[in-house]
Every structure is written in C-alpha cells, then in structure tokens.
Amino acid sequence: MGDNGMTELDNVIAAAFASEGKQEDVNKVYLTLLRTQLIVPVKKEASPNPEEPFFPLFAKMDEKYFLIAFDTIERLKAWAEDQLDQIAFVELLGRDFIVGMSEQTYLCLNLGTDYYKEFSPDEIMHLKKVIMRVDQLK
To answer: How far apart are CA 63 and CA 38, in angstroms?
Structure first.
C-alpha cells in the first residue's frame, strides 16, 4: 500500500474513472478484483448447511440486492463502526467470491471509501466468463 493508503484496487479503479472507462482500464479492474483477497462481512451465526458455510451480509436498496466486500480489514471496521461485534467476516479470493455470487446480485466494493465501486449483474456475468476463460487456459 502506498503512503496515501490506496490499495491496488483503488489505483486501478481511479485509473478507470480517469480514462472514463476505457476497456483496457476496466479489464485491469476486473483482473485485479479476481486476484485480490476480499474481506466479506457475514452473519455471526453459523450456517446449518455445510454446503454454504456462511451467510454474506446483503444490503437491499431500491429493490436490488447488494453483496458487500472490502479489500482491507480497516475498511470493513470503518464501515461496521459500532456494529462490528455483531458481524463476522471471511476472507475469500475475489475469484472465488464472484464464482459463488448469484447473477442477479450487485457487488458493493469498499462501501464508504473514496474508490467505492458497484459491479452490476452484467459485470458479475462478465467476470464469471473471464474466470471460465482463465480456467480453460490452465
């Protein structure tokens, strides 16, 4: 992390904003997201279903469901504030997080920060395709 507290994801998101979403810069955001360890707030109680070991926290806004993830623990804590003791969190590689996401869901990355980014269901679908292509190359 640089002196200004920006993460690698902040840097690529800032570049994509600056270039007004040039495809090359957007692709960098996607690829960086897939290889970043994400911190995902989850409900504290354990899931009764071993297939789904945890329940991610959702935010519902305007009839849309948003999954929330952060790229640092500090950001999760700043967002949770005094509710921190009521939630747990898991660390997941961005790639694994996207694979497990429903295609009707938005992803809120780094809620409450300067480089907050929403990924729409279309972008989630695109990310899933990127992952499938990468997996085929292995």
So the answer is: 25
pTM of the model: 0.86
What is the rounded CA–CA span in Å between residue 50 and residue 137? 31
d(CA 130, CA 138): 13
pLDDT digits (tens, 9 = 90+) for 40-72: 999 887 666 666 667 788 888 888 889 999 999
Contacts of 48 (CB under 8 A, 6+ apart): none
The topology (CATH level 3) of 37-137 is: Trna Endonuclease; Chain: A, domain 1 (3.40.1350)
Cα–Cα dist 16/62, whole Å: 26
State the DSSP string of 111-133. Answer: TTSTT-EEE-HHHHHHHHHHHHH
What are the domain boundaries of the chain?
37-137
On whether the CB atoms of residues 54 and 88 are closer than 8 A, the answer is yes
